[in-house]
Here is the input.
Amino acid sequence: MPTIYLAGPEVFLPDAQTVMGEKRRLARSFGFEPTGPGSDENQAPVGRLTAEAIYQRNDDAMRRADVCLANITPFRGISADPGTVYEIGFMIALGKRVWAYTNHPDDYGTRVRSIWYAGLDIDESSGRPRGPDGLSIENHGKSDNLMIDLGIEEGGGRVIRAAALPADPERDLAAYTEALRHLRG
Here is the structure.
C-alpha cells in the first residue's frame, strides 16, 4: 500500500481529530496509507511536543512517503498555509509526486483583487495589473502562486479545484476525495 503524506492546515482546526480521521479513512479507502501531521502515529497522545519534535516527525514522514496530497485552500489569508507550501516544496525536492487540492474555485489573482484589495481601484494601464500600493498582481490563472501550481504540475501532479466555494471550505472533503480518485488512477 503506497504511503501518502497528507499536508494541510486541518491540524489547526478545533475538531482536527475528527477531520483528520475522516481524511485518513478516505485515503485508506483509495488504497493509500496516510502519514504526516494528521496521521495515526501523530495523533497518539504524547504530551506537548516541542517545535523541534514536530518538525522531526513531519520530516521523517515526508521522507518515508511515496506521494503527497496537499490542501492549498487559502488559510488565514489569500494563499495556502505556509507550512503546507514548505511541505510541497520539500516533497518536490525529494523527487516525490505531489498533488494538491483547493476548496476555493477562484484563481490567486482574482482572490488578490477581491480579498486583499477589496473595493479598491486596480491600475490596468500598463498591461500588468497593480494594486493601489503599486504592487503587481500575479495574473496567471493558477490556483495559488505560480511556483506552487507549476512545481506540482512539472513533477506529474495536478491541482484539483472545487467548482464552487463549499459552505465549510475548511472541512469540505469533496475536492480531496476527487484528488484521491485521480491519484489512484
Q: What stands out?
A: Helices lie at 16-29, 40-43, 51-64, 82-93, 108-116, 146-154, 174-184.
